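Researcher: Structure for this, please.
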Amino acid sequence: MAHLQQDQPPGVPALELTGERTLPDVPAENYWYRRHLAVYDWIADRVRGLRVADLACGEGYGAAVLAGTAADVIGVDANPEAHEHARLRYPLPNLRFERGLVEEFSEPRDVIVFLQTIEHIHEPERLLMDIAAAAPLAYISTPNRLTLAPEGAEKSDNPWHLREYTAAEYRALLEPRFSEVRLFGLIHARKLRLHQLALDLGWDRVHKTLRISKPFYDRFTPAISAADFTLRDQSECDLDAALDFVAVCRA
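Model: Predicted structure, token format:
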């Protein structure tokens, strides 16, 4: 069943959920949207007054979050539907959207933001070298294969992902291209942490036995917020158990 964005402003075309990008305004996608939004919020606090490029910006919500604190933001995406939607949906004075391949972006910036996309790239090493040349600071994230894919699998079943990384593999990819790499792990917090504890105690068996799975998750999933995720430094959490890795990279 196709999932379209709901309640878009007049004149803004709704995007369809395909699995290639995360969308706001799709109740069934809210967990993934908030998971990504938590990272954008965290980065926005750290790029105040700076010139930022958000590569592979997709629907544009993240670039708009960054524009709330940055001096100016460029959102770059190759998809024509996403580009048109973002341009119409987020008309901010310090935000502009460009349609193009991330591999071709070369405008100097203070910061490059590149989230949940390196796993889609055919030649990640080359692109990382270009990012290091374009900005002195980059925020680059990717999902943790150990918590996304089935145990022992080389990758998840996401058809858009070419390769997924463990923390050690991700560090080995990044460190030769930057002078400094600091890894953070995204983990569950607040009600998602409580939900995980409940699952560990057998909640999945209980709600299936009581036949309340759908009513429960129809309410629980839309109620998830960005505050139900938190980022922890590599010294404060087990990166192998993290949901995503966020690398802070200095050229």
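Researcher: Any notable elements?
Model: The longest strand covers residues 180-188. The mean pLDDT is 95.
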